[in-house]
Amino acid sequence: MDITSTSQAIQMVGFPIICVLGLAFFIYKIWQKMQENQDKLTMTLVEVNTTNRELSETNKELSETNRKLVEQFTNDLASIKEDMKDIKEAVSK
Known about the structure:
Blueprint: H1 3-13, H2 15-92
Helix pairs in contact: 1-2
């Protein structure tokens, strides 16, 4: 739209109507941009949610593995203590 056509439109329809149309166009463009941003945020939230679930599952597995290892080390340590006790008794005799 060039200056002469804008000037003619203002003269024919009036300044308030042109302002309303201009603002309506502005609001429409902002609405489109907000929709694009909302779609991007929604996609990001879905990806983050999926990643969070995967990490929670991995953490659960690691926690269980660590629990089993601690239990095994505790049993091994008890066995070593018992062996050391037997060796100490054997050496003391």
